[in-house]
Amino acid sequence: MTASCRICGGTTRITHRATVLGRHEATYRMCDACAYWSVDEPHWLDEAYSEAVAAIDTGVVQRNLHLYPRLASALVRMFGSTGTYVDYGAGYGLLVRLLRDVGLDVYWQDAHCENLFARGFEWEGSRPEAAAAVTAVEVMEHVTDPLAFVDTCLRDTGAHSFVFTQHLHDLSADPSWWYLAPEAGQHISFYAPRTMPVLAERLGMTYHSAGTLHLLTKRNFRRGAFARSVRFHRISYALLRRRLRSRVMPDHRLLAGQVCRIGDRVLQA
Ligand SMILES: [Zn+2]
User: Fold this and answer.
1) Where are the domains of the chain?
2) Which residues have their alpha-adjacent CB atom under 5 A from ion ligand 1?
3) H helices within 80-168, ranges in order?
4) What mean pLDDT is predicted for residues 18-30?
5) Angle CA(267)–CA(268)–CA(269) in degrees, nearest 5?
6) Rg (CA), the chain
7) Which ranges of the chain would DSSP assign to H, the alpha helix?
8) How confident is the prediction for the chain on average, in pLDDT?
9) Ligand 1 centroid vs 153 CA: distance in angstroms?
10) What are the tens digits of pLDDT across the range 91-119?
């Protein structure tokens, strides 16, 4: 049984127990120091991911439509429009497609879910240039070891920045908090505002907050720059739509060319 905090190594206490997936008992514990709140040894994850995006997630489309103008604006403002980005835990690939439609060069990585919307743009990890940043939307609550996860993302992409979404808990350890979602058994890691700087420090990074969007980075950004990039997204999004060229048609031509080449090889064989 894990007794010490996986982020800061501090002591933890059990907050409650709950039934996940209708039949497994989960023990939730919170760190006394950094307030990282997690589930002990979630042995049911294979079962929980048998359908990768839980059937109860009715918010998937609404969430992506809400997020993509904000995220596109923040990425361009902080890291520029010419670099590559990698979306970890991309799910069906809807966000990757939306960001490519805006004009950003975004790829995806996901060990659990079949990609439906951004096939052909898998991150192969063989590019000579480092990614400008990694994004991870609705992912950090799914990981068993947040430090190792962020570290792996950065190492595999060469990126120095990690942008992610997360609802932070309010320290009340309320067992009925909706974000715990024990029905699906996938949410196992929860963070408070005070967890974030500790997480950053452990990774040799700094932390910047913008509501439910968060940035961990090894670069030096002015305090508040990330929050402003999200807050003023309407103006910057309108400008970048005018400036950037959508990848809808270039991507179509690229993929159509690949299909033709595969067809030629089949005919020649
Ligand atoms: Zn801790």
Assistant:
1) 54-253
2) 5, 7-8, 10, 31, 33-34, 36
3) 94-102, 146-157
4) 94
5) 95
6) 20
7) 45-48, 60-79, 94-102, 146-157, 195-202, 225-231, 233-243, 248-268
8) 93
9) 21
10) 999 999 999 999 999 999 998 888 999 99
Cα of 215 vs centre of ligand 1, distance in Å, is: 19
Residue corresponding to tokens 């994850």: 45
Q: How much is the pLDDT for 265?
A: 77
Q: Which fold has domain 54-253?
A: Rossmann fold (3.40.50)
- Per-residue pLDDT at 54: 61
The per-residue pLDDT for 130 is 93
Helices (H) and strands (E) in the chain — how many of each?
8, 10
What average pLDDT does range 127-153 have in this prediction? 95
Measure 94 CA to ligand 1 centroid, in angstroms: 34
Q: Which of 30, 26, 53 is nearest to 40 (CA)?
A: 26
pTM for this one? 0.93
Contacts of residue 165, defined as CB under 8 A and 6 or more positions apart, other chains included, come to: 67, 136, 137, 138, 139, 140, 212, 213, 214
